[in-house]
TrEMBL record:
The keyword Transmembrane applies. It comes from Gordonia westfalica. This is ABC-type transporter Mla maintaining outer membrane lipid asymmetry, component MlaD. The chain crosses the membrane at residues 21-43. Keywords: Membrane, Transmembrane, Transmembrane helix. The lineage of its organism: Bacteria, Bacillati, Actinomycetota, Actinomycetes, Mycobacteriales.
Length: 361
C-alpha cells in the first residue's frame, strides 16, 4: 500500500507535487553529471599545456620531479612535465611540453639536468642548448645517456656523506682547540681595537703628514738592515764556527780548549778569590775602608756632575771653533777651563787669572 505525503512548499495536489519533485531531482542529476564531466574531461583538456610534445628517455629521474614540474631554459619556464613512466628497468620515460618559441630555439642535441627551480628547492628539469643537431618536432623521442642531478636534496645527501666521513673525533678535537685558541686571542684583538681607537682619537694631523713622517723614519731602515746583516754575518763567520782549514763547522778542539780554560778560571781563579775573601773577611775590611776614604773626595775634587756638563760644553765649543769658507777660516776659542774647580785653583795660584768668573776667562 502506497502512502502519499503532501508538501506544503509545493502547490497542487499530491500527484502534481510528485511530478514536480521528480522533475527537479532529474534536473539536479543532469546538472551534476554535466559539472562532473566538465571538470573531469573538458577542464583538463582546456587547461592542458599546448606546444611541442617531446618524449624523453632518461637513465634516472631527479628527486621531486612529477607531473606538473617545470621545464627551464636559461632560467625561464618554457614548459612542464606531463607524464612519467618508470616501469621499464634502467630507464625513465618522461613526457614534456615545450613552448613553440622555446622549441624553435633548441635542437635535438640539447643537454638535460635536474636542478632547483627556486630557493625553496623545488626541482625542475633544466635544458641546456647545444650547437649542432636538427630542429625539434612534436612527438619526437629524445634519448639521453646522462642526466646530472644538481637538486638540493642530492646536495644535502652528499654533504651528509662528506660530513660523516670527515667529522671524526680527531677533527672535533682539532676544532675544539681552534676555538680555545680563538677565545685566548680575544683579549689581544680587543686590545688592538682599543689601541686603534685611541690613535684615531689622539692624532692631530692628516694621514698624509703622518705617512710622510713614517717615510722619514723608514729611510733609516735600509742602512740599519745592512748593518744588522753584517753583524749576523760576523757572528756566523766568527772563529767559533770555523775549522782550522777555514771551512765552516764546529771546531771541537777549540771548544774543548775554551771549556777547559773557563773551568780553570772558574775553579782556579775566581774560586781561589772567593776562598781568600771568605777566610780573610775581617782582615780585608780595614783595607776596603781605607780605599773608600781615599776615593770619596775624588768627585768633589773634579766638581761632581757639573764638571761633566761643562766639559761636554767645552768639547762642543771646540767643534765649532773653525768658521768660514775653505779659503778663509776663522778660529774662535772661548776658554771655559777656569770654571772647572780642578783647573781654576792652579790657575789662580799661578796668577794667570784673579779667579773664576761666570762667563769664563
Amino acid at each position: 500500500m502506497s502512502v502519499n505525503s503532501s508538501q506544503d512548499f509545493i502547490r497542487g495536489d499530491v500527484r502534481g507535487q510528485s511530478r514536480t519533485l521528480v522533475t527537479a531531482g532529474l534536473s539536479a542529476l543532469v546538472v551534476l553529471v554535466v559539472v562532473v564531466a566538465v571538470f573531469a574531461v573538458v577542464y583538463p583538456r582546456a587547461t592542458a599545456p599546448r606546444g611541442t610534445d617531446l618524449h624523453l628517455v632518461l637513465p634516472a629521474l631527479g628527486p621531486g620531479v612529477e607531473n606538473g614540474s617545470r621545464v627551464l631554459l636559461r632560467g625561464a619556464e618554457v614548459g612542464e612535465v606531463t607524464g612519467i613512466d618508470a616501469t621499464e628497468p634502467g630507464v625513465v620515460h618522461v613526457d614534456v611540453v615545450l613552448d613553440d618559441q622555446a622549441a624553435g630555439s633548441l635542437t635535438d642535441s640539447f643537454q638535460l639536468d635536474y636542478r632547483p627551480q627556486n630557493y625553496f628547492g623545488v626541482t625542475a628539469v633544466n635544458l641546456v642548448a647545444m650547437p649542432g643537431g636538427e630542429s625539434l618536432r612534436s612527438g619526437q623521442t629524445v634519448r639521453r645517456e646522462a642526466a646530472p642531478d644538481f637538486t638540493m636534496s642530492t646536495m644535502i645527501e652528499r654533504s651528509s656523506i662528506v660530513v660523516d666521513g670527515t667529522l671524526t673525533r680527531d677533527m672535533i678535537d682539532s676544532l675544539d682547540e681552534v676555538m680555545r685558541y680563538a677565545n685566548g686571542l680575544s683579549p689581544l684583538i680587543e686590545t688592538a681595537v682599543i689601541f686603534t681607537d685611541k690613535v684615531a682619537r689622539t692624532q692631530r694631523q692628516m694621514p698624509s703628514t703622518l705617512l710622510g713622517k713614517m717615510n722619514d723614519l723608514a729611510e733609516a731602515f735600509p742602512g740599519f738592515n745592512r748593518e744588522a746583516m753584517k753583524s749576523l754575518d760576523a757572528i756566523s763567520n766568527n772563529v767559533l764556527n770555523k775549522l782550522p782549514d777555514g771551512s765552516r763547522g764546529v771546531d771541537e778542539a777549540y771548544h774543548d780548549l775554551m771549556d777547559r780554560s773557563l773551568t780553570v778560571a772558574a775553579d782556579g781563579l775566581f774560586g781561589a778569590i772567593g776562598t781568600l775573601l771568605g777566610s780573610h773577611a775581617t782582615d780585608l775590611t780595614p783595607v776596603v775602608t781605607s780605599i773608600k776614604y781615599l776615593v770619596d773626595p775624588v768627585p768633589q775634587m773634579i766638581g761632581g756632575g757639573a764638571s761633566m756638563a761643562k766639559t761636554r760644553k767645552a768639547i762642543e765649543q771646540l767643534r765649532n771653533t773653525f768658521k768660514g769658507n775653505e779659503e778663509a777660516k776663522t778660529l774662535q776659542i772661548r776658554l771655559l777651563l777656569d770654571t772647572v774647580p780642578a783647573v781654576a785653583g792652579p790657575l789662580a795660584r799661578m796668577g794667570v787669572v784673579d779667579g773664576p768668573r761666570v762667563g769664563g776667562n
